[in-house]
Amino acid sequence: MILGLIQSLGPWSWVIFGAALLAAEIALPGNFLIWVGLAAAAIGGVSLAVWDARWWSWEIQWLTFAALSCLFLFIGRGWLHRRGGETDEPLLNRRAQSLIGRMGDLIDPIHNGFGRVKLGDTIWVVKGPELPAGTKVKVIATDGADLVVEAG
């Protein structure tokens, strides 16, 4: 049944397949299906021009589709990678780094290099010099999930 439908649609089956892949990219964003969908649409365009050519067999169409998919994926990913470098929120997913420069009070003393500080509504593990509880500290760096502080 499906094979009969594809044969009856002829070259338009590639165009429909490409449109379905592009629609799937909208529903399942991941920056992959767009390149495969564009390759299918390109094969559809070529098929519209040379559908009756003896050399344009289904094997050639699928091999060309696979090659174009890889090519478009390689070129498209590279283009997007070069294009998308700047953001207006560079620390969005780096919460600890966004705290550099903030001041807080130690809730536990820094003993053996470690203590705890409350910043906003979160308690953070801090590293720094020996300081008693209640000391005002300033976050100067991060070390993994820990904050590095100095007396402020």
Characterization of this structure:
Strand 4 (136-143) and strand 5 (146-151) form a beta hairpin. This protein is rod-shaped. The protein folds into two domains: 11-83, no CATH class; 97-151, Beta Barrel (OB fold (Dihydrolipoamide Acetyltransferase, E2P)). With 152 residues, the chain is of the alpha+beta class. 45% of the residues lie in helices and 23% in strands. A five-stranded mixed beta barrel has the order 1-2-3-5-4. The protein has helices at 2-9, 12-27, 33-50, 58-83, and strands at residues 103-111, 114-119, 122-127, 136-143, 146-151. 16% of the residues are buried.
Structural class: alpha+beta
Compute the gyration radius: what is it?
29 Å
Look at the structure and give the mean pLDDT: 89
| Total DSSP helices | 4
Query: What count of domains describes the coordinates?
Result: 2
The helix content is: 40-55%
Q: List the uncertain runs.
A: none
What spatial order of strands do you see in the largest sheet?
1-2-3-5-4
What's the overall geometry?
rod-shaped
Strand tally is 5
Biggest β-sheet, characterized?
Answer: 5 strands, mixed, barrel
Order of helix and strand elements from N to C terminus: HHHHEEEEE
> Beta-sheet strand percentage?
15-25%
Terminal CA distance: 76 Å
